[in-house]
Fold each of these.
Amino acid sequence: MASIFSHAVAAIGIGACFYRPGTPKRVWVIGALCSVIPDLDVIGFRLGVHYGDFWGHRGFTHSLFFAALVASAVVLAGFRRPAPGLGRFPMSVYFFLASASHGLLDAMTDGGLGIAFFAPFDNDRYFLPWRPIHVSPIGAGRFFTHRGLEVLQSELLWIWLPATLLALSVWLTRRRAVPST
Ligand SMILES: [Zn+2]
């Protein structure tokens, strides 16, 4: 995995593209949560689930289908009545992208097994051809090592920086689009 903070940062960067004034803050918080939910599969390690299994790490919970399930469930459960600002359809697209971005970023890491993007229809694991992000150690303790620092550097460069640039460019574009009075 990339670390959970970096997944959340990616979700906030994506959220910037969906920003509408008046949207409740919980929408962005939930988006960030959607981006870290897939890694709940690490619980499986304690339950004897193998890495390469359907329910194993980077398996079904990292698939596009799971991202669609999460997005639909969140909107159905939490936003039965439309909230101000962002409509329910773009909101579900946002939650989907936030959750799906997790597998995409993991597929750009240089370790572990690939991602079961197409589960449950195809349980093969895939990486992207380009994998510049150092894989994050599982478990916070091991994060504070030299290796942890390298991981942090690669995540800052390949996740935090693009997410910030994305948010900044959306903000600048919108600012320019607002007619000055
Ligand atoms: Zn992951």
Note: The radius of gyration is 17 Å.
Amino acid sequence: MKIHEIYLSLQGEGSEVGRPCVFVRLQGCNLSCSWCDTTYARSRSLRVRDLKVKHVLQEIDALSDGGACKLVEITGGEPMLQAEEVMMLGKHLRDAHYEILIETNGSIDLSAYQCQWIRYVVDYKLPSSGMESKMCLKNLKVIKKKDELKFVVQDYKDFKRALGIIREHRPRSQILFSPVWGKLSPAELADWILTERIDCRLSLQQHKIIWGENTIGK
Ligand code: SF4
């Protein structure tokens, strides 16, 4: 697997926010979002390691103190560009009783990768990202109650588009709204959510609040 970094931190977003979590950040991405905050994971650099699944598993075990911390997130870049290895790693993690989150950018059809023991966080790209045309709309039907659909919102146009998607496709998953860091205030997004009575969760990037926005490996 092409690995950018494996590290222990607190889960910064979504329904597991605040829990210790081992993050496996894979290298490479097929999109280029205007507000990307992980550009370092998109390019090939000297930091990137090519590891076998069993070695990734060993690093996760070491960081989690033999599974004492149960939560693992596989992220990127775009992890599903390495879907075969990701699913293999997922099976090993399940056998070792870890809880598995996969954060994916919404462009890759997930229908062939469905299983009970993986929870997807699908990061739907709204107009301000410049990448909405790449979204796989089929995923909105594929994701389930255990999964999360995340909208990263930069402005009101993004917010209205997210609302349109929710109302048209009625996804079964949990819904998350997150403001683009430094571009939209959480208070403004909170007001919009309450005005529209959306059954969702406002998700702030807690790791940036704690350690600052440019910290890598946190
Ligand atoms: S999908 Fe994620 S890693 Fe890829 S460009 Fe967009 S924000 Fe960056």
Note: The domain at 2-211 is CATH 3.20.20.70 (TIM Barrel).
